[in-house]
Amino acid sequence: MARLGFHSALMSKDASATRMEKIVSLCKRRGFIFQSSEIYGGLNGFWDYGPLGVELKKNLKDFWWRRNVRERDDMEGMDGSIIMNRAVWKASGHEETFSDPMVDCKVCNSRNRADQLPEKDGKKYCPQCGSRDLTEARDFNLMFKSHAGPLESEDNLVYLRPETAQAIFVNFRNVLDTSRQKLPFGIAQIGKAFRNEINPRNYIFRSREFEQMEIEYFCRPEDGMQLTDYWLEQRIKFYEDIGIPRSKIHINDIPDGERAFYSKKTYDLEYEFPFGVSELEGIAYRTDYDLGKHIEHSGKPLDYFDEATKERFIPHVVEPSAGVDRTTLALLCEAFDEETVTDEKGNSETRTVLRFHPRMAPIKCGIFPLLKNKPALVEKAKEIATALRPIMNVFYDEAGAIGRRYRRQDEAGTPFCVTIDFDTIGENGPEKENTVTLRHRDSMTQERIAISDLKNYLLEKIG
Ligand code: ATP
User: Fold this and answer.
1) Spatial separation of the C-alpha atoms in residues 184 and 224, rounded to whole Å
2) 319 lines ligand 1 (CB under 6 A)
3) Burial level of 107, CB count in 10 A (0-12/13-18/19+)?
């Protein structure tokens, strides 16, 4: 684990802090993200996704699943339980070593991660009260504990999983036997993970409950290195396909000595967040460490028999492990834009727009009857909305001036809006009957399109 990924901020500190504040405030105002249990004062490190946020996150997860599972012959999906036998975490080493060094302030009793303490004149100090009277660093295990069953005894101790990966390793045999895959092949999983982070921070970047999208790609030992580079490229392409340009992704090739001892190669993919360049995903060549450990602890045969060469061996594994919440935050940061626009009367105003890739946008198309008190317009608009709803998320809105309705959708990141007007219902002659105005979010340009072409047009853009 590379637990620190902060480099220099790319914008000035003030500009990036302001940008981040604006993103956080937009996310709350428009219903992307709320503080968990907000009415009771919230809970540090926990977040809720609102109506737009859940769509954004779902689009991300669905596209990851499509790209990595459905579009590939060599990948199987699974969904493991969050709570597993404690023995899993003993074998994986998490019970022993999944910890961060923590330091207590002797003056205000606050607790902070040793590697994140601010420093002045070469001496670390407490970020809360400024005192330099700190304890020595001690290891703090990040796994949340609970008990399975009514007894709160050591025998019933269980953990909320801190990563989804272990469910894949312990199911390797089950998936191999039921899917009839041959090496190389992968198992993919999306699910919740929990880490009792000492200092949750940077909004949803580091939280205590989050989701991961993980692949364990099993291979012959001699193919591990080359497949790590293959997955690096696949994963960068994925980010490009969701609207995060390659130029904003930094590849951190973790040097010898800084990688986990069992890893022969690890790349961290980092994104230029407003608060600094920070880790989105790790791609690690983990050799046969995990399967080897589970063989040792469970005594079960998690090895592989190669029919062609008649060899029996423990497969090696390459693990691309991405965070749903961090990628969602990257999507929001990448999409957020403000520009000055001038209306027909010459008044200028700031337009806030989320320039999501149409594939990721929570709402694909806004549907507006020009006037809400004209039944023919309303009826036609509702008809179009009903036809599109089974295949994409649309938003029907009949309230207020058209310009305002466009602006509301700009803030939600809706790439297209259609307006149903008097031309549509044939009041200005048959020429434009059954056509609508299609308005583009990014350029704000408008064009006329036949209702019969709308569905295919939108589907092609959404990809
Ligand atoms: P970091 O160094 O930032 O703590 P890590 O190296 O410990 O991350 P991994 O254990 O490699 O992270 O987990 C894989 C991915 O899971 C990370 O790249 C990140 O996207 C996501 N992730 C890990 N911890 C958190 C967290 N506390 N909040 C949100 N996402 C997380």
Assistant:
1) 10
2) no
3) middle
